[in-house]
Specification:
The structure holds 2 protein chains of 2 kinds. Chain A is α+β, with helices and mostly antiparallel strands. Chain A has 2 domains: 234 residues, OmpA-like domain (60s Ribosomal Protein L30, Chain: A); 136 residues, Immunoglobulin-like (Sandwich), CATH 2.60.40. Helices cover 33% and strands 15% of the residues of chain A. In chain A, strand 10 and strand 11 form a beta hairpin. In chain A, helix 3 packs across helix 4, helix 3 packs across helix 6 and helix 4 crosses helix 6. The radius of gyration of chain A is 26 Å and the shape is globular. In chain A, 42% of the residues are buried. Chain B is of the alpha+beta class. Chain B has 2 domains: 351 residues, no CATH class; 155 residues, Immunoglobulin-like, CATH 2.60.40. In chain B, the strands form 7 sheets. Chain B has an 8-stranded mixed β-sheet with strand order 3-2-11-15-16-17-18-19, with helices on both faces. Chain B has a 6-stranded mixed β-sheet with strand order 22-30-29-24-27-26, with no helix packed on it. In chain B, a hairpin with a 4-residue loop joins strand 29 and strand 30. The relative contact order of chain B is 0.10. The model of chain B has no long low-confidence stretch (mean pLDDT 90). Classes of the chains: A alpha+beta, B alpha+beta. Chains A and B meet through strand 9, strand 14, helix 14 and helix 15 of A and strand 1, helix 1, strand 3 and strand 5 of B. Strand 9 of chain A pairs parallel with strand 1 of chain B, so a sheet runs across the interface.
Amino acid sequence: MPATPTQIEPVSLTVGGVAASVTETVRPYAVAPTLESKWNTLRERLAPVGCWRASDVRFEFDSSVPRPELRGEMRVLKRRIDAHEGCLLSVFGHADPVGDSGYNKQLSGRRAQAIYGLVTRRVDLWEELYSSDPSWKDRGVGVMLVALEPAGDDDSAEEPATLKDQLKAFQQRQGLSPSGQADAPTRKKLFQMYMDLLCVGADDKPWTLAADRFLGRGADSKGKADYQGCGEFNPILMLSASELQKFEQSGDKAGRNAANAPNRRVLILLFPKELEVDVAKWPCPRASEGTSGCQKRLWSDSSKRLSNTSQRREYKDTRDTFGCRFYERIAGLTPCELQKPIPMMVIRIQLHDYCYKPCPGVKYRLLLESGEEIKGVTDGEGWLVQRVISREQRARIVYRPEGEEADLESIAIVSASKAEDDAWVDRHVQNFGFRPEKVKDALVLFQAAHKDLKVTGEGDDQTRKAIRDIMTGSMTEPLENHSA
Amino acid sequence: MSDEIAEAKVAPRALYYVVIDGTEAKDSAAFGGMIQGKFGWRNLLGEFLPTVEDQPTGLPGDKDRLIDEAHPYLPVHLHKTNYSNKKIAVVEPGGRDCIGKDPHWKEYAGEQPSERPNGVREWKNSLGDSFTTYGRHTAQEKSARFLKRFILEPAVEVTPGSSPVKARVHDSHPDLVFPWPEHLIHADLLLVSSHGWLGGFMKGNRAQDWPDAKPKEAQPGSQAMSSYFAVGEASAKGWKFRGPLWIILAQCSTANSATWEFWVDLFGRSSPIVRGLLAYEEASPAASGSITIADNFFKKLAQGKTMLEAWKLANNGQNWAAVVHKEALNDTMQDWRTFTPITDGSTTDSTSAYRGFLRSIPDGEEIFKKTPPLGVMIKRLLTEDTWIEITPELLDTSIAGLWGNRYYGIGIVAPSGEKLAEATIEWVHIRPTYSKQFGILELFARFNVFEGDDELGLAVDGSNKRRIVVALANGARDMLKFCFLSQTPEKLRATGLEAHHSYLWIRATATTESGVTLKHDFKTTGVSYYGV
């Protein structure tokens, strides 16, 4: 019996992924009557205790380069690993069913390798990817260099430096020969630093796992049982034939790719620490190998499962889109594969300084409760616009208004709810900065600060109008305290 | 289906400050203008207390007065400053501009029926001594005494839902019974600008003569007997701060190596634990100089300097002081909203949570509860055979006063296991660097041994007339005791001592039987001169 996890929520959702613990699933053993002298043999099932998924949006397009935003999902993964003490991991990469199956197998395997290498700090595995995946050479290196730039170095108002300039600056900072080329020593340092940037816990400190924390325990030099690519064999969404035809007829490749995005994912399954597998008998081929090993494990009706039928099919509803029976057995009942599409919302937050003036063109870091961190620059009126999971979000925003020598931090509580109820009043009043130790004091503070309101302690009509006026107009005039 | 949209406008968390000024208010108003302008802080009392226009009182004049119906004697005014277009609310316990001529005090008649119609009030201390005040003097005394509570807990009580909304300055007196306020809002930062003394107590300006005041007993100038705050008293009585994380004292002398121990005692049990104190060890600048320093202070803070660093740099050349918790050494204004709460502020003789900084100790030193190397007791003879010891918590009472024709007993106590053969006592006026110092015989008519003690010799030090030398003819003792008789009131007045300003304390040295020389400054057990 798998040990119950230490205190953690059953499911963690982030913009780019999901993680969950697998609650005990009673799986019946089918046994037949036997002779008195014979015994039925029951074998401990290969059943995960937890799962984690990173979506396609966390990789560069059509690439195995992990994007900096994966950091949030890595925080979530660490929490999940810690909750299941000693658990063993196995990484599964998936591609969408468009294009060559051999290519898809390779891409999914490379993504799995990228994640495995990240967690174990195997820079050599990333070197392999650099050598074999063209997207690492230009795009990948560029993404990493930008993510590792010290704060304040790049000015969004200027033209970005060339890749060569960025490399030189990096090399100079790290004491490397400033060749402006992504040579071997530069890549090694770059990969190491980028891995430490991405693979962090809730405390922002880097973490890593040894090879023996994976299912194959690092026994195979090519990672058998530790990481593998499933290619296009296990989509969670199969478009209908008509949907696919529409895309093809219109030539809308971008639309088709976007529609297939849910299929492009990387899953990590967490297994009990007691589990032992014979790597030699592990059914999945190595990440670098072709699809022949997968073929042996496909359902007999896999061609039907993997075809575009008259209806759109989603695995969570029809349970008939996975082609590989082995994968379906171990992952098919995990929340990570059954998770409904996460509703998203667009958040627009206008940042203000100490004197309630908007902050246009400033860099910010948006830190969501899920652990995700999103960076950006506000627009010409000080608004940040981002897409996040649709639920009430409480975020920290770190930014530096123009002229300030240090960052400041504000809290934003955002909700898509349009009801102007008491929660709406509380939310906005706290967002305006009135966040005392006792939340019940917030409204009184806001009313006292507002130049036109009386302190009633109630969310009366005048107060609600004042909030609406601030939201549609200016915060500066009614609240500013200085007007020098 | 397109995504829903959620909008918000955010600003940094609002922070609140209170300024109290017992001298000229322009520096406090400037401070308020600067902290509002540079960092968006809000003035707690200015935010909540109604003006006379909002809440007419029927009392005369002063449209800039803020009304606190629970404390009508307490002047709180709005002041203009060049540093803001908004007026800044300043608590002025000495009346508007602290010259005692507050319009609301002109014919102050008191609140209690027993005080009416002349605002008469008799004040008694624990020894039964009493004095009586009238009119504005009563208001002045009440304001000073109220500050002892308000400085500890600078907060506003707000009870909305009534018309007009009830907002008043918080009063934590245990004997008061008010309905518990619906909202109690504390200040995050406190500034007190006033006079201060090495003994760790603070007072305001003396009120000027006011021929228009009523009744006539209230016309002469006066000084409140009570201090605004005495850190020795606060420490001894187990008081604590509630609310402020940082405190700034723009006043002379109150933060020095003798009072550090009292400050950290208070800070460590406060809620939240006070993170730091910025102050002065000796003379602090007057109002205009303070404004320049405040300007530099806030400029440095805006550059991201820590509270401590900015204070040091702004006070270059001044005898500044600071007491800062070890976890608050890197506190900046920008980080204020994300300070990690301090959970342990305790100080013992072996554990230290705070560091003390002076101009002479710029890198600071750990503050421990220390036992002085030798002891000095000062006692005052109250009746024929009753002596009372002057302790830090009595410093702002008449007990710790230098009165004419009074006996003061001095005891110099050897450390445990030692005996004393010789000692010197020097009376220091205000601080060693203060220009006006006094010879022993200017202050005291004589000094003599106690009856029957022929072994002890007393003599004025020939090289320093402020010092007497105490020597034993034979052997050594655990304690050397003798007494002084103060000069007559007339002679004391003639010396140039300043009533309600002069404070005298003892600098002692002693030589043990084993030849070790011990020294200590007993800054927190001195006597104040009241002009009588």
